[in-house]
Amino acid sequence: MLITNKRIGSEIPSSEITPENIYHERRLFFKSLGIAASSVAFLAASSKQVMAGVNVLPNFIHASNANEELLTPFKHITSYNNYYEFGTSKTDPAENAHTLKTDPWSIKIEGEVEKPLILSLDEIIKLAPLEERIYRLRCVEGWSMVVPWVGIPLSALIKKASPNSNAKFVEFISVSRPQEMVGQRSNVLDWPYSEGLRIDEAMHPLTILAVGLYGKLLPNQNGAPVRLVVPWKYGFKSAKAIVKIKLTEKMPATSWMKANSSEYGFYSNVNPEVDHPRWSQATERAIGDGFLSKRRKTEMFNGYTKEVESLYRGMDLRRYF
Amino acid sequence: MRLSLSLATSKKLIFFAALWPLVSIGFQAYQDQLGANPVEFIERHFGKWTLIFLCLTLAMTPLRKLTQNGRWLLHRRMLGLFVFFYASVHFLCYVGLDYAFAWEDMRDDILKHRYVLVGFLAWILLIPLAITSTKKMIGRLKTKWKQLHRLIYVIAILGLLHFFWLVKKDMTQPLIYLAVVLILFLIRIDFKFLRRS
Q: What is this model's ipTM?
């Protein structure tokens, strides 16, 4: 397994690696996020190695094999995106996403909960300590990236609203603002974008709400200001720019299920054994590896089998794809 | 202008112009503009140019009819060979760059995914057309040559399907190519009817 869920901490003092100006810039934007001074130190410590151009991060990456895993470069993570709200080409979001206003922002939590809530982004990131999580993001189209996200466990937010006993599923609704999101002016998907998880998947410690990557605030094209990240599922499950979280008794229909239910199932767990009609799910191309590199074998649950297989015990994963 | 050029000159001009896709991708590679997924970028680039040359090849007969000038057909063979050339480069990118000669993975990909399968079939069907494109073969096959080369219509349909089935949701691009091919097909049919009456 590549990742880890390791709280950032750090063996190397940031001053050793991060050029001072970058370090101060970072202090500024984390201040603007409202993070306590101690977290600033942690985050700075975690991200500075990358900022300084060091690619190998042995402290963060716990590969099951001996191979060293590399983070995907920031420029690729922020220029190759599937975010149809800003256009259907991979390069559209980086060009068009700047028009979305992400401040102020709040998330409404409603449905099968004891305490419906509306929380601002500042309040959300104070629910739990921000952590850096280095996850592989596997797209259903057969490519993957390794992204150092910064966020909080989604469970912290859901617990705050106290789900009742009817809460079996969690629906995520993304923002709908055609004036600010050029792609929403065409009906390529059923807007607003919606996704869903089973409650146990949503409460799983690997599932996070991300607000940053590479130690910086999340760029708009990556789902700013707050997005879901569910690392053992195909990328489209990780909804971006979330404004509403609804706990439900029935399985919600997601945007991609409505678009093409025979190709996109509710679960959409990464599974090299269950092929997609269009793309091979047996292998994937690692973005940023250069064009003479080989495709890598896709791992069951994207490499998180140990952590998540218990969620699906006894389920036929071909049927519930 | 066109008429004032000798055939040899216009052929040379078209030949060099047709190398543009190689020059442009080379330039983009040199400028480091192939993006986050260069393999996909290069594959798509040559796939797109294969379709463009296919449309150009299919445009020669309609142009002859519209302009009442037979000269267009004298360029058709070279354009057709460029279709085969770019389709082969596109296929080689898939084999060498994308799959790095992993034959088993490739076989599974071709057999399991219909868009890959139709694209592969289209390339296979181009081979006999390229082989029989010489004057000698035209003379030898006579009427059969014409029948054989009608395969280009099947290839065009397979090529379009290849594109349609690849696209996840936004069909704008493949629809544009479909519209062009349909217009080129319709012009042929239309003219035949007119001649009969």
A: 0.86
